[in-house]
Write a structure and sequence with these properties.
The chain is of the alpha/beta class and 299 residues long. Helices cover 37% and strands 22% of the residues. It has one domain: Alpha/Beta hydrolase fold, catalytic domain (Rossmann fold), CATH 3.40.50.1820. The strands form two sheets. An eight-stranded mixed sheet has the order 1-2-4-3-5-6-9-10, sandwiched between helices. The two termini are 21 Å apart.
Length: 299
Amino acid sequence: MEQAITFDSDGVEIAGILYSPDRPAAAGHPGVVLCQGMIGVKEFFWFPHIGRRLAELGHVALIWDFRGVGESGGEPGRLYPLEQANDIRNALTFLETRAEVDADRLALVGFSFGAGMVPYVAGIDERVRAAVSVVGWGDGRRWMRSVRRQGEWLDLLARIAEDRKARVGGAPSALMGPMGGILVGDPKTAAARGDIVKDIPHMDRPVATDYSLATAEKLIEFRPVEVVARISPRAILFIAAELDAVTPADDVVDMYDAARAPKDLWLIPGAGHYDVYLPDLRDAIFERTVAWLAEHMPA
């Protein structure tokens, strides 16, 4: 069963789709909040497909638009990680209000940008019983620096400094341009992304999201790696792509090292960032995700 929903997050209306099993469970179903990549639109990158499959297996799954994106309210171009964390926590609270959900079995699953938010929220919110982070990031400064040449990095810092001064004077933060302003990638990665996304439903003409220099500043300051040790004794699975040029695998490995058991790491050999959305890897990741949830959120 699919249902369009909204929930309030600190005064911002967040739009989502809830996927529920057709048959009720006496003790309620586990609830899963799915956290999108930086593109932020709930229909992109197989999320409806994942939601439906989770519901078929007895989970209640929620996909949702980032604030300022898609059907959600909020300021366009503003993606501040601490606000995003509040949105994810309010999504968990929304699931708690649903009669069909077992509030003691809540999980987070995130991809790319969302895979950096998942470890952070799991570290600060004990309602998260299990988490899965797919091609994520753990240190905003390291991430943003690692995908840029030295001149590009220094230019970004200078632009942020000038933008900060303009904002103090009342000006809006300048937008960096669609996606690539923050998600700098090499030409090979950009070509791979184009080849992969054209075969994904809803993504024949994906709408890119412009984010602001203020967003870049907040991302640089954000470090999920600092809280992952607090997830234990709850469980987290990290999945990284060996040849990831968008969210480099070293950052994921460092998060895994900083986390405590129960934890696991799957470093996919020879894979790039967008390869995780190809059918074979997508299905393998889904199976590992379901197995992890079943192990750490048993009925």
